[in-house]
Amino acid sequence: MQINKVIFAGNLTRDPELKALPSGLNMCNLSLAANEVYTSKDGEKKESTEYGNIVIFGKQAENTAKYLKKGDSALVEGKLQTRSWEKDGVKQYRTEIVAQSVQFGGKRAEVPNKELEPITARQEDTATPPDGVIDESSIPF
Q: What is the pLDDT of residues 44-61, one digit of tens each?
Protein backbone atom coordinates (compact mmCIF):
# COMPACT_ATOMS: atom_id res chain seq x y z
CA MET A 1 0.00 0.00 0.00
CA GLN A 2 1.21 3.52 -0.82
CA ILE A 3 -0.13 6.70 0.75
CA ASN A 4 0.81 10.30 0.04
CA LYS A 5 -1.05 12.31 2.70
CA VAL A 6 0.23 15.31 4.66
CA ILE A 7 -1.37 17.27 7.49
CA PHE A 8 0.56 20.42 8.36
CA ALA A 9 -0.52 23.12 10.81
CA GLY A 10 1.38 26.30 11.55
CA ASN A 11 1.59 30.05 11.15
CA LEU A 12 2.06 31.88 7.85
CA THR A 13 5.61 33.20 7.48
CA ARG A 14 4.53 35.73 4.83
CA ASP A 15 1.37 36.97 3.15
CA PRO A 16 -0.10 34.52 0.60
CA GLU A 17 0.79 35.16 -3.06
CA LEU A 18 -2.12 34.77 -5.49
CA LYS A 19 -1.32 34.24 -9.19
CA ALA A 20 -3.38 33.42 -12.26
CA LEU A 21 -2.02 30.58 -14.40
CA PRO A 22 -2.13 30.86 -18.22
CA SER A 23 -5.09 28.46 -18.12
CA GLY A 24 -7.02 31.01 -16.02
CA LEU A 25 -6.87 28.84 -12.88
CA ASN A 26 -5.84 30.72 -9.72
CA MET A 27 -2.91 29.48 -7.66
CA CYS A 28 -1.80 30.61 -4.21
CA ASN A 29 1.63 30.04 -2.62
CA LEU A 30 2.26 30.32 1.08
CA SER A 31 4.71 29.12 3.68
CA LEU A 32 3.80 27.74 7.11
CA ALA A 33 6.09 27.40 10.13
CA ALA A 34 5.35 24.79 12.79
CA ASN A 35 7.18 25.11 16.11
CA GLU A 36 7.94 22.17 18.36
CA VAL A 37 9.14 22.51 21.95
CA TYR A 38 10.89 19.50 23.47
CA THR A 39 13.25 18.61 26.28
CA SER A 40 16.77 17.50 25.35
CA LYS A 41 18.65 14.62 26.99
CA ASP A 42 20.24 17.20 29.30
CA GLY A 43 16.80 18.35 30.51
CA GLU A 44 17.09 21.61 28.60
CA LYS A 45 14.02 22.98 26.79
CA LYS A 46 14.66 23.32 23.07
CA GLU A 47 12.59 24.59 20.17
CA SER A 48 12.75 23.58 16.53
CA THR A 49 10.83 24.90 13.56
CA GLU A 50 9.81 23.10 10.39
CA TYR A 51 8.65 24.98 7.31
CA GLY A 52 6.15 23.82 4.72
CA ASN A 53 5.75 25.34 1.26
CA ILE A 54 2.07 25.14 0.29
CA VAL A 55 0.42 25.38 -3.14
CA ILE A 56 -3.35 25.90 -3.38
CA PHE A 57 -5.51 25.99 -6.54
CA GLY A 58 -8.91 27.33 -7.60
CA LYS A 59 -11.50 29.02 -5.40
CA GLN A 60 -9.68 27.78 -2.29
CA ALA A 61 -6.61 29.73 -3.47
CA GLU A 62 -8.69 32.92 -3.80
CA ASN A 63 -10.21 32.54 -0.33
CA THR A 64 -6.85 31.79 1.27
CA ALA A 65 -5.28 34.89 -0.26
CA LYS A 66 -8.29 36.99 0.74
CA TYR A 67 -8.63 35.92 4.37
CA LEU A 68 -5.15 34.90 5.60
CA LYS A 69 -2.19 37.15 6.34
CA LYS A 70 1.32 36.74 7.74
CA GLY A 71 1.17 35.38 11.31
CA ASP A 72 -2.28 33.78 10.97
CA SER A 73 -2.58 30.05 11.62
CA ALA A 74 -3.84 27.45 9.18
CA LEU A 75 -4.15 23.69 8.88
CA VAL A 76 -3.50 22.19 5.46
CA GLU A 77 -4.29 18.67 4.27
CA GLY A 78 -2.78 17.59 1.00
CA LYS A 79 -0.09 15.57 -0.71
CA LEU A 80 3.65 15.97 -1.20
CA GLN A 81 4.84 16.79 -4.68
CA THR A 82 8.38 17.50 -5.87
CA ARG A 83 8.88 19.55 -8.99
CA SER A 84 12.10 20.23 -10.82
CA TRP A 85 13.42 22.81 -13.28
CA GLU A 86 16.75 23.92 -14.66
CA LYS A 87 18.35 27.22 -13.69
CA ASP A 88 21.71 28.26 -15.14
CA GLY A 89 22.33 24.67 -16.21
CA VAL A 90 21.74 23.30 -12.70
CA LYS A 91 18.76 21.13 -11.88
CA GLN A 92 16.69 22.62 -9.04
CA TYR A 93 14.15 20.77 -6.87
CA ARG A 94 11.37 21.92 -4.59
CA THR A 95 9.11 19.71 -2.48
CA GLU A 96 5.72 21.28 -1.77
CA ILE A 97 2.44 20.37 -0.18
CA VAL A 98 -0.35 20.56 -2.75
CA ALA A 99 -3.39 21.45 -0.66
CA GLN A 100 -6.62 19.50 -0.92
CA SER A 101 -8.17 21.47 1.97
CA VAL A 102 -7.22 24.52 4.02
CA GLN A 103 -8.73 25.36 7.39
CA PHE A 104 -8.21 28.89 8.68
CA GLY A 105 -7.06 29.17 12.28
CA GLY A 106 -6.84 32.09 14.65
CA LYS A 107 -5.71 35.55 13.72
CA ARG A 108 -2.42 36.97 14.88
CA ALA A 109 -2.75 39.40 17.77
CA GLU A 110 -2.63 42.96 16.48
CA VAL A 111 -0.82 44.25 19.59
CA PRO A 112 2.26 42.17 20.44
CA ASN A 113 3.10 41.28 24.06
CA LYS A 114 -0.40 42.06 25.32
CA GLU A 115 -2.42 39.38 26.99
CA LEU A 116 -5.75 38.87 25.24
CA GLU A 117 -8.96 38.45 27.16
CA PRO A 118 -10.88 35.27 26.37
CA ILE A 119 -13.88 35.76 24.10
CA THR A 120 -17.13 34.33 25.38
CA ALA A 121 -20.36 34.31 23.41
CA ARG A 122 -23.27 36.13 24.97
CA GLN A 123 -26.86 35.40 24.05
CA GLU A 124 -27.21 38.71 22.21
CA ASP A 125 -24.04 37.92 20.18
CA THR A 126 -25.51 34.69 18.82
CA ALA A 127 -29.06 35.91 18.18
CA THR A 128 -30.31 36.99 14.77
CA PRO A 129 -30.04 40.69 13.90
CA PRO A 130 -32.74 42.97 15.38
CA ASP A 131 -34.51 43.34 12.04
CA GLY A 132 -34.33 39.56 11.45
CA VAL A 133 -32.47 40.02 8.14
CA ILE A 134 -29.00 38.54 7.61
CA ASP A 135 -26.87 40.30 5.01
CA GLU A 136 -25.61 37.37 2.90
CA SER A 137 -22.85 39.48 1.34
CA SER A 138 -21.11 39.63 4.74
CA ILE A 139 -20.82 35.81 4.92
CA PRO A 140 -17.32 34.80 3.74
CA PHE A 141 -18.40 31.56 1.99
A: 999 999 999 999 999 999
